[in-house]
Design goal:
616 residues; alpha+beta; Heat Shock Protein 90; Ribosomal Protein S5, domain 2; Rossmann fold; nine-stranded mixed sheet; six-stranded mixed sheet; 23 strands; binds adenosine-5'-diphosphate
Length: 616
């Protein structure tokens, strides 16, 4: 008489299987991950039993996982030497659903309402994912409890399953999948090897595929920091990045709240984006208890941290069946926030502890931090701390942080000043710098075309506004210089200049910021500077002509060129007009705004001719 028992699946299992079998998943291959993870859990549980002193059946067999593919037979078999299942456990675990969440979800599905594949994916279907690819599943299991015996569980999916005693089984569980016609690829060794390498490389028990050991690299992120050698870290970096140099920085940390996280992050030694490789993608892989959830996880870090490499492992993640469902979950956003804040704090610490390495990092990756300032409101303040610039108070080549700048500020200074220039010499010679030099206020020199936008976005630092030199309202402190025009004369000259230059300028006024230069142009728009205009023009896609921008002209009432202009404008109107135009063009040159110097050159040559003309 056969001792085979026939069981029906619980109604919910029936429903779950129906979804698993009939819905099209993009990631059928994840059944390998699910079954190996179950095997690893069983090994883990066995260890626990061992360590708590339970008597173990066949205790000499160490916990491990073996996978065997049989292409001619169209099968794949996954065996673990974990804790196994008794008759009762087989009924309980593989015939009913314990997860209340999954149950509740399934309850909502009534009649022929189509299941939302994405939603079911959030619960994970574990063992049942086998039925995505198998027409028949056989489970042989022998519990670790010595007085138990072995059982064979078989099912063709729909309907139910059969249970029969199985003699002489070794401890653990063996699952054999008879693959469906359309899933025969999963009986190919190289297909399975690729899948195991991808998802299960760090499973903490040996995995063998057709007698070949696969997972040899350790999940060092889960180990104690103090026990890991630098070479091990570097080896791991090479494993995740395929880069054979050593990383510039490494951050290994774990946290319990608000999320359980273990992370090992690396900053590569070089910025590959500037090496002509195009835009790089984040290479941080997301794991849940050492099992891959998502390679190069999108959304785990903000875009501007896309140069990072490494691993993030969080126990709080659901083992999702479909990768797509991970992306926008609020959990992912939480992870993103925690990880980003932690990494920025790390950089701030490094800038103190490893100042030299930090500057190297800054040299390679400053553009990403700046991208963060402009695009990411959440981390703006932390990013502001990380910026570095040359400064008028420091030697060329030395960089300062905004925090150190603020520390040096004299009490009467209320704003942080910045000046964009092509280089140090240009910054120091700039007419916009004169008032600061005169008043001995420190100015940050920005050499990256984007820096003005970055400062505008950053807006304030430690409560001090960031001010572009060109936009400052600072006045010279000293009294009027000898020989300078009176206020009335200066106003009259300004008026005459406006009439003479007409449409070429906006307003003309006497300047309170110039020392050595005769004049300066200032963008009339409160938020615009000359270099911003240049950048916007360079970025413009279409060929429409630009709207003419009028600049205000400020003149220096103490400059000889200006005082003499005032003197001759009554006597020689033609010469005065020509000089006025030249002063405006010179100011434009200083601001980098003169695009076509040809007209200016003709005029300049005429002026020189007059200077050299024989006195009559
Ligand atoms: P989950 O793993 O999410 O709990 P599964 O459907 O994959 O869901 O498995 C259900 C249960 O079956 C597991 O919780 C475990 O108790 C048991 N189980 C599955 N596979 C094994 C195995 N290889 N060895 C021992 N127990 C297993």
């Amino acid at each position: 008489m056969s001792k085979t028992e026939t069981h029906h699946f619980q109604a919910e299992i029936q429903q779950l299987l129906d979804i698993v079998i009939h819905s099209l998943y993009t990631d059928k291959e994840i059944f390998v991950r699910e079954l190996i993870s179950n095997g690893a859990d069983a090994c883990e549980k066995l260890r626990f039993q061992q360590s708590s002193g339970s008597v173990i059946y066949q205790s000499e067999i160490t916990p491990a996982i073996t996978v065997v593919t049989d292409e001619p037979a169209g099968t794949i078999t996954i065996t673990d030497t974990g804790l196994g299942m008794t008759h009762g456990e087989l009924v309980e675990n593989l015939g009913t659903i314990a997860h209340s969440g999954t149950k509740a979800f399934l309850k909502q599905l009534t009649g022929d309402k189509k299941p939302d594949v994405g939603l079911i994916g959030q619960f994970g279907v574990g063992f049942y994912s086998a039925f995505m690819v198998a027409k028949k599943v056989t489970v042989l299991s022998r519990s670790f409890v010595p007085e138990e015996s072995g059982w064979q569980w078989t099912s063709e999916g729909m309907g139910g399953y059969e249970l029969a005693p199985a003699a002489d089984l070794p401890r653990g569980t063996r699952i054999t999948l008879e693959l469906k016609e359309e899933a025969k690829e999963f009986a190919q060794a190289n297909t399975i090897e690729r899948i195991i390498q991808r998802y299960s490389s760090f499973v903490p028990f040996p995995i063998e595929l057709n007698a070949k050991r696969l997972n040899t690299v350790q999940a060092i992120w889960a180990r104690n920091k103090n026990e890991i050698k630098v070479e091990e870290y570097n080896e791991f970096y090479t494993f995740v990045s395929h880069d054979h140099e050593s990383p510039l920085f490494r951050l290994h940390f774990s946290a319990d709240a608000p999320l359980a996280i273990q992370a090992l992050l690396f900053v590569p030694p070089r910025n590959f984006e500037t090496l002509g490789m195009g835009r790089i993608d984040s290479e941080v892989n997301l794991y849940c208890r050492k099992v891959l959830i998502q390679a190069k996880a999108k959304g785990l870090f903000p875009e501007w941290l896309r140069f990072l490499k490494g691993v993030v492992d969080s126990e709080d993640l659901p083992l999702n069946i479909s990768r797509e469902t991970m992306q926008d979950t609020s959990l992912m956003q939480k992870l993103n926030k925690v990880l980003t804040s932690r990494f920025l704090k790390f950089l701030d610490e490094q800038s103190e502890k490893e100042a030299e390495a930090y500057l190297k990092f800054y040299g390679e990756f400053h553009r990403y931090l700046k991208e963060g300032v402009v695009t990411d409101f959440t981390h703006k303040e932390a990013l502001g701390k990380l910026l570095r610039f040359e400064s008028s108070s420091l030697d060329q080549g030395k960089l300062t942080s905004l925090a150190d700048y603020v520390k040096r500020m004299p009490s009467e200074q209320t704003e942080i000043y910045c000046l964009l220039a092509a280089n140090r010499a240009a910054a120091e010679a700039s007419p916009y710098f004169e008032v600061f030099r005169e008043r001995k206020f420190e100015v940050l020199f920005l050499y990256d075309a984007w820096d003005e936008f970055v400062m505008e976005h950053l807006h304030t630092f430690e409560g001090k506004s960031l001010k572009l030199a060109e936009k400052t309202e600072l006045d010279l402190s000293s009294a009027k210089k000898d020989g300078a025009l009176s206020d009335t004369d200066a106003a009259a000259l300004a008026q005459w200049l406006k009439t003479t230059l007409a449409d070429k300028v906006g307003a003309v006024r006497a300047s309170k910021r110039l020392v050595d230069s005769p004049a300066v142009v200032v963008d009339a728009d409160k938020f615009m500077t000359a270099s911003m205009r240049r950048m916007m023009k360079a970025m413009k896609q279409n060929s429409e002509p630009d709207l003419p921008v009028k600049y205000d002209l400020e003149i220096n009432p103490a400059h000889p060129l200006v005082t003499r202009l005032e003197a001759i404008r009554q006597q020689d109107a033609a010469l005065a007009a020509s000089v006025a135009e030249q002063i405006l063009d010179n100011a434009r040159v200083a601001a980098g705004l003169l695009e076509d110097p040809r007209a200016m050159l003709t005029r300049l040559n005429q002026l020189l001719e007059r200077v050299l003309a024989k006195p009559s």
